[in-house]
Design a protein that fits this description.
The chain is an all-alpha fold. The chain has one domain (3-138). It has 7 helices and no strands. It has helices at residues 3-17, 25-39, 41-53, 62-71, 74-88, 91-102, 104-138.
C-alpha cells in the first residue's frame, strides 16, 4: 500500500469516527488536500498534454509539448483545485472522491481519462464553434442611424 493511499484511508477512517453531520471548513480542506494528493496533479497534467499532442488538428511538435509542460505550475493548480473543491463539495464528498480515486478502479479511470477526453473534445469544440456561428448568424442586425 502506498503512503498516499494509506493517508487517504486514514483520513477517511478519522472522518468516519467524527459525527456524520460534521462538515467544517478545516475538514473540507484536509479532505480536498487528500484528494489532490491521490489525484497526482503533475501526472494528470502531463497526461492531458500528451493526449492533446495526439490531436493532429493542433499540429504540436515535440518541442511544443515540452514547452507547454513547462508552462504549468503544479502547485498553483493544486491550490486552485483545493480552493474550488472546498467551495463546491462537502467534506464527506471530498473523502469519497479521494477514496475512489485512490482505489484500483479510480486509478484505472484516471489513466484512461486523458485519451477519452482527447477523443471527445474535438467533437465538442466543433459543435460549440458551430453553435456560436449559428447564434451569431441569427442575431438581428441593428441598422446604424
Amino acid at each position: 500500500m502506498t503512503a498516499t493511499r494509506f493517508l487517504v484511508i486514514f483520513a477517511a477512517l478519522v472522518m468516519m469516527a467524527a459525527p456524520a453531520s460534521a462538515d467544517t471548513p478545516e475538514g473540507r480542506l484536509a479532505a480536498a488536500k487528500a484528494y489532490v494528493k491521490v489525484a497526482d496533479v503533475p501526472k494528470m497534467m502531463n497526461e492531458m498534454v500528451d493526449a492533446m499532442a495526439q490531436n493532429p488538428q493542433l499540429g504540436l511538435t515535440a518541442g511544443h509539448v515540452e514547452q507547454i509542460r513547462g508552462m504549468f505550475d503544479h502547485g498553483e493548480m493544486e491550490n486552485l483545485m483545493v480552493e474550488k473543491m472546498t467551495k463546491h463539495f462537502t467534506e464527506e464528498e471530498l473523502l469519497k472522491l479521494a477514496e475512489f480515486y485512490g482505489s484500483p478502479e479510480g486509478i484505472s479511470i484516471m489513466k484512461k481519462m486523458p485519451a477519452y477526453m482527447s477523443d471527445v473534445m474535438p467533437f465538442v469544440q466543433q459543435k460549440v464553434a458551430e453553435a456560436v456561428q449559428k447564434a451569431k448568424a441569427q442575431q438581428p442586425t441593428t441598422p446604424t442611424p
